Amino acid sequence: MKGSKAKSVLPGFGLSLGFTIFYLSVIVIIPLVGVFIRTSGMSWEAFWRTVTDPRVLASYKISFVTAFSAALVNAVFGLLVAWVLVRYRFPGKKLVDSIVDLPFALPTAVAGIALTAIYAPSGWMGSLLEPLGIKVAYTPLGITIALIFIGLPFVVRTVQPVLQELEKGTEEAAVMLGAFRWRTFRKVILPELIPPLITGFALAFARGVGEYGSVVFISGNMPMRTEIAPLLIMTKLEQYDYAGATAIAVVMLVVSFLMLLLINYLQWRTNRRFAAVE
Fold first, then answer.
1. Nearest 10 degrees: CA dihedral of 55, 57, 58, 61?
2. Residues 194, 191: Cα–Cα separation, whole Å
3. Cα(209)–Cα(67) distance, rounded to whole angstroms?
4. How many whole angstroms separate alpha carbon 123 and alpha carbon 149?
5. Spatial distance between the Cα atoms of 118 and 126, rounded to a whole number of angstroms
6. Residue 260, class by beta-carbon neighbours within 10 Å (0-12 exposed, 13-18 middle, 19+ buried)?
7. Contact by Cβ (8 Å): 112, 197
8. Are 176 and 72 in contact (CB under 8 A)?
């Protein structure tokens, strides 16, 4: 009938959409808006002085650089782990597959204590690396290793389903046409894996930026050297400087949002380019 509104095949769209918006507003949007409202009570001079303090800037650098580095490492080795779990059969495969999820279940504080005990100068790995001039605990390298530990499952579990759905017939056809293994991987397999890799990278990066429990022990918390931004926020809260804590949080929130927006844009461009090729 002309002018009538087309009905959705699935009923209850209006109710579901309303509940979704309400739930996201209560759980996500309202708390974030509260951070901005609390910060708005500061004058611009006080806000700028707080967020540009040398100690705060150093904590931003440590948090974002280590999170980015860890996510980059996880993108490479997470792909390798997912490839092994999907393409090969070996004894203990299910056990290895379960171990990948261990950082999800393990309390972050426990992970931080364990990593510190292992990589400390007197620890098992630390005692082997110390004579080589490599210090892990209480350095940015230690923070990066902790973030690699907690971020690996995000990449593996994002890439793994895509690898499982890839048709092996396409790879076999490429090999039969004379393509070498590397060319087959680069031209046939990798284009399909780039979107989930970008997603896994974004998830690992976002988790790393806000990570606290597994980092606070191994970092040593030295201002200007190994102090992360979440720890500095906790320090401000312990000093009852709520405005200063929210000011630092606002900057982290805005930068993280912009970086995730850029990553999502790159993912959209990648999907669009590959869709045009197909």
1. 160
2. 5
3. 5
4. 18
5. 6
6. middle
7. no
8. no
Amino acid, single-letter form, for residue 39: T
DSSP H stretches of helix in 106-228: 108-119, 124-129, 140-165, 168-176, 181-184, 190-210, 213-219
Q: pLDDT tens digits for 99-116? A: 999 998 888 889 899 999
Nearest to 204 by CA among 246, 159, 163, 162: 159
pLDDT tens readout for residues 158-214: 999 988 887 665 655 555 555 556 666 766 777 788 888 988 999 999 999 989 888
Taking only Cα atoms into account, the Rg of the chain, rounded to an integer number of angstroms, comes to 23
User: In degrees, to the nearest 5, what angle opens at C-alpha 240 toward C-alphas 236 and 243?
Assistant: 70
Question: Kind and range of the H or E element at 31?
Answer: helix 30-40
Q: Which amino acid appears at position 198 of this protein?
A: I
Q: What is the pTM of this model?
A: 0.84
